[in-house]
């Protein structure tokens, strides 16, 4: 069986990655499987353990990382995030195209290990719009919102590390562009 692609999607928090992903993640033609990350951050309302993330303690995370169980890992706004290696390998070997929704440092590590990864960065139409979106959905204190905005501004200077940059001005359009990118890579890979 043909091994699946490894697809990385990044973008500043609040850019609407989740909303764009929802538009195409269940498209049967794309044969996608979402990689559930491990994190030490607190669960947000509506999130489910094992669906959005595996929620673990810092000790559990550090143990997994030090045992080589993570494809990549990074610290983001005081919490650890990482991609479990075993499930990514298993899914790719089953022919699924595995989608990682991770931040920039994680993508850098993935690119070193898997240079053929299809990396896509989603940008907001403007910084003002990004701030509006972050505040609109915020369940977090002002200090954290400020940290996320500062991190977003820094992250946006890193778009050059990605193979593709897609603007999320219109959700459906952004999702369609990503669909085309994935389909093209599926063809290239055959
Ligand atoms: P959030 O706390 O908003 O769910 O995620 C914060 C940031 O962590 C987002 O940019 C998200 O893409 C990133 N992230 C989620 N999972 C992982 C992961 O496994 N590895 C890395 N490096 N970043 C992740």
Strand % is 15-25%
User: In total, how many beta strands?
Assistant: 9
**Continuous helix count:** 7
> Class by helix and strand content?
alpha/beta
Euclidean distance between termini CA atoms: 11 Å
Q: Mean pLDDT, as a whole number?
A: 94
CATH T-level fold name? Rossmann fold
Basic shape: globular
User: What's the multimeric state?
Assistant: single chain
- Contiguous uncertain segments of 5+ residues: none
User: Which hetero ligands occur in this complex?
Assistant: guanosine-5'-monophosphate
Percent helix, as a range, is 40-55%
Characterize the main sheet.
5 strands, parallel
Neighbour order of strands in the largest sheet: 2-7-1-8-9
User: What is the ordering of alpha helices and beta strands?
Assistant: EHEEEHEEHEHEHHEH
Overall description:
It is a single chain. By secondary structure, this protein is α/β, with parallel strands linked by helices. The protein has one domain (6-188): P-loop containing nucleotide triphosphate hydrolases (Rossmann fold), CATH 3.40.50. Helix content is 41%, strand content 22%. The chain contains 7 helices and 9 strands, in the order E-H-E-E-E-H-E-E-H-E-H-E-H-H-E-H. The protein has helices at 17-24, 58-66, 85-93, 104-113, 127-136, 142-155, 171-188, and strands spanning 6-10, 32-34, 37-39, 53-55, 70-76, 79-84, 97-101, 118-123, 164-167. Strand 5 and strand 6 (79-84) form a beta hairpin. The mean pLDDT is 94. The structure holds guanosine-5'-monophosphate (5GP). Guanosine-5'-monophosphate binds at residues 13, 37, 41, 72, 74, 76, 81-83, 101-103, 105-106.
